[in-house]
Amino acid sequence: MEVLRALWEHGPGTVRQLDGVLRRHGRRWAYTTVQTLLFRLQAKGYATSETRAVPHVFHAAVTREGLVSQKLQDLADQLCDGTATPLVMALVKGHRFSDDEIEQFRQLLDRM
C-alpha cells in the first residue's frame, strides 16, 4: 500500500524515483524490494509499467476511490452476504462529520 500510495500522490515513476519518495517518507527498503513490490502490484492489476521505456516507468492502474470501493465490496461479500448496509452503518456510527460531508451524503442518497 505504501508503494501504491506513492504512485497516487507523486505520479508515475521509475523504481529509483519511487524509492526516493519512500525514503523521504522514512521507508528504507532496498532498491530490489521496491522493485519487487512494484512487480507484485503490477501482477495484481494495481499498477502498470511502460515496458518500452528503460528504465520502466510505473503508473497506478487503479484510483484510491476505486480500490476502496472494490475492497469494501469484497468485505461486504465476505462478512455481510453481499449486503452493504451493515458495513456502511458500522463505518458511519460514532464518527463526527462536517456539515459539508453530511451535505455530500444527503446528495448521494438523493441521487440513489
Compute the average pLDDT: 93
Give the amount of beta strand, in percent: 5-15%
Biggest sheet record: 2 strands, antiparallel
| Terminal Cα span | 31 Å
* Helix/strand/pairing category: mainly alpha
Could you please describe the fold and organization of this structure?
The model has no long low-confidence stretch (mean pLDDT 93). α2 crosses α3. The longest helix is centred in the middle third of the chain and has 16 residues. This protein is mainly α. The protein is elongated and about 50 Å long.
Key descriptive features of the protein:
single chain; 112 residues; mainly alpha; two-stranded antiparallel sheet; 62% helix; elongated
Q: Topology of this protein?
A:
Blueprint: H1 2-10, H2 15-24, H3 31-43, E1 47-50, E2 57-60, H4 64-79, H5 85-92, H6 99-111
Antiparallel strand pairs: 1-2
Q: Short description, anyone?
A:
With 112 residues, the protein is mainly alpha-helical. Helices cover 62% and strands 7% of the residues.
